């Protein structure tokens, strides 16, 4: 336990003794305290709150959120057949320990941090591999942020972490705007020229206080290797003038309203590596390195609230503060005490992202149905009384379609067979290692995922809204890659369905695509469709699977 955690525990115990409050709530698991906060002070909550989701809906939802794909038909059936009372908790733990979890988080945080901008100085594969390995090892969030803010790109082993800053070309304004949104939950862009005209607590000094950590750094390109890295000057101040008042001010580095960080007295030597035209300068004292310290300091409440809010939004479909990068007094949290609870619990557990996601997944809030209670259809989303619909991300959509059509399983079988026959000295057990399988599958199917990202991803935008474009509709209808997945050959789903009698076919189809058994009405509809097209079963089965993959039920997490 960190020193600050010990101090917090002592202070909390003292508060309980001083107020006479019971410690039972504090001793309850976090997921129970979360549910208590959701309904606190809302007399109508229990009346409007949705029932728990059924097992099939829960399994699909948790697979998508923690593994980034739907479950296979066999896994969905196994979960439904399991009668143990703790099977949901066991599935959550299983997914959090899986290689697919690291892949899912790689995509989530790549989108959050780089916002689908094009590569510039560090290749996306290196960066995403760095993220995947970080989440596979459950690296604490504050450590990950420290690495990204301190890496300068000059050393190969830490170079991928420098993408966050390097691919923004070390432009002070771009970095200030993005770091404020991504790590503090505050879009300070409109406070660059004056105090924000619409948000009273976004001040010009907040913008330039953050900029002061960064304005001495610059993009250096090695004249021989042409490789970019971060250089920094030992001097440079930040002055700003409001266009409204013409008042000028100077600020040292500071985050929001936290105390400023003053430079130390000038040393006799200002540089470890002095600036020259062909040399990357390195100062003795780096303002940029102080940013990581200030950002992750316990006094910076905004840092832990921001990431807690973003993880909540990932699981629940919207933030406690929504939009997630517009935290201010005029846009308060829907549940202030809940946001404090999540942020403090995350910090108390050393920024263990896996811990917080587990607790969120265990809540009744997360496990509620997406079906409204009668008479509660107009309940506002910020009450979290019903599970919100979440459009699948491009990556989730790609992996889920490949899973549904059995491309994933067929590709993995091919990879394992090729590995075993490629070299007599290859260890057959290696092909059964989940880490090897995940890495091999990720590389083999990467081009398909990139195709979906190019079409369904929107650069610079993170949104929970969904609007299908004409190009996306045309892709789902005519794209050669998708049509190839529907061909009734090899181990494809369509080929497998051909071998089954109609009742088995309908059941396998629904479990493969929708992760659930069909209703009686659906059995009747699909049976009738197949009977009407019995002269051309290949086409009929292909159309059936295509229609399911294009449906709203498939394209949303619900």
List the defining traits of the structure above:
mainly alpha; globular; two-stranded antiparallel sheet; two-stranded antiparallel ribbon; 8 strands; 53% helix; 5% strand; 558 residues; single chain; 28 helices; disordered N terminus
Could you walk me through the main structural features you see in this protein, from its secondary elements to its overall organization?
The protein is built from 28 helices and eight strands. With about 550 residues, the protein is mainly alpha-helical. Among the domains are: about 160 residues, no CATH class; about 170 residues, no CATH class. Strand 1 and strand 2 form a beta hairpin. The radius of gyration is 26 Å and the shape is globular. The protein starts with a helix and ends with a strand.
Short description:
With about 550 residues, the protein is mostly helical. It has 28 helices and eight strands.
């Amino acid at each position: 336990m960190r020193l600050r955690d010990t101090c917090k525990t002592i202070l909390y115990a003292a508060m309980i003794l001083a107020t006479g409050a019971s410690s039972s709530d504090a001793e309850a698991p976090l997921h129970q305290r979360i549910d208590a906060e959701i309904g606190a002070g809302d007399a109508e909550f229990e009346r409007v709150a949705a029932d728990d989701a059924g097992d099939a809906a829960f399994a699909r939802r948790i697979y998508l959120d923690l593994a980034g794909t739907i479950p296979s038909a066999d896994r969905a059936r196994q979960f439904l057949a399991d009668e143990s009372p703790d099977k949901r908790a066991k599935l959550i733990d299983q997914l959090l320990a899986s290689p697919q979890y690291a892949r899912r988080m790689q995509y989530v945080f790549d989108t959050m941090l780089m916002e689908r901008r094009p590569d510039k100085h560090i290749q996306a594969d290196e960066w995403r591999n760095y993220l995947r390995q970080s989440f596979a090892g459950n690296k604490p969030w504050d450590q990950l942020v420290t690495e990204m803010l301190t890496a300068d790109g000059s050393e190969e082993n830490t170079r991928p972490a420098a993408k966050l800053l390097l691919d923004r070309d070390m432009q002070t304004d771009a970095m200030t705007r993005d770091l404020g949104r991504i790590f503090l939950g505050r879009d300070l862009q409109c406070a660059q020229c004056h105090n924000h005209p619409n948000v009273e607590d976004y001040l010009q000094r907040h913008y330039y206080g953050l900029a002061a950590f960064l304005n001495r750094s610059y993009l250096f390109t090695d004249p021989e290797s042409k490789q970019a890295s971060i250089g920094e000057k030992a001097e440079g101040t930040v002055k700003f003038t409001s266009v409204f008042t013409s008042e000028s001010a100077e600020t040292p580095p500071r985050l929001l309203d936290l105390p400023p960080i003053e430079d130390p007295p000038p040393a006799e030597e200002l540089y470890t590596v002095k600036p020259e035209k062909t040399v990357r300068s390195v100062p003795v004292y780096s303002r940029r390195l102080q940013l990581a310290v200030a950002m992750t300091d316990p006094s910076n409440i905004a840092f832990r609230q921001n990431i807690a809010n973003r993880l909540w939004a990932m699981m629940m479909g919207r933030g406690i503060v929504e939009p997630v990068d517009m935290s201010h007094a005029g846009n308060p949290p829907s549940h202030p005490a809940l946001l404090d609870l999540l942020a403090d619990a995350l910090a108390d557990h050393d920024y263990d992202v896996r811990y917080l996601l587990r607790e969120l997944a265990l809540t009744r809030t997360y496990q509620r149905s997406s079906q409204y209670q009668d008479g509660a259809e107009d309940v506002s989303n910020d009450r979290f009384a019903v599970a919100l619909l979440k459009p699948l991300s491009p990556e989730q959509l790609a992996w889920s379609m490949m899973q549904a059509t059995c491309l994933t399983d067929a590709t993995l079988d091919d990879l394992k067979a090729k590995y075993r026959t490629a070299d007599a000295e290859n260890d057959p057990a290696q092909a059964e290692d989940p880490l090897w399988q995940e890495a091999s599958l990720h590389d083999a199917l990467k081009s398909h995922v990139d195709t979906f990202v190019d079409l369904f991803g929107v650069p610079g935008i993170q949104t929970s809204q969904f609007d299908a474009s004409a190009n996306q509709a045309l892709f789902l209808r005519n794209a050669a890659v998708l049509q190839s997945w529907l061909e009734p050959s090899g181990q494809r789903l369509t080929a497998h369905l051909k071998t089954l009698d109609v009742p088995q076919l309908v059941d396998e189809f629904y479990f493969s695509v929708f992760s659930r058994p069909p209703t009686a009405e659906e059995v009747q509809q699909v049976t009738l469709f197949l009977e009407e097209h019995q002269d051309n079963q290949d086409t009929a089965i292909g159309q059936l699977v295509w229609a399911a993959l294009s449906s709203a039920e498939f394209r949303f997490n619900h």
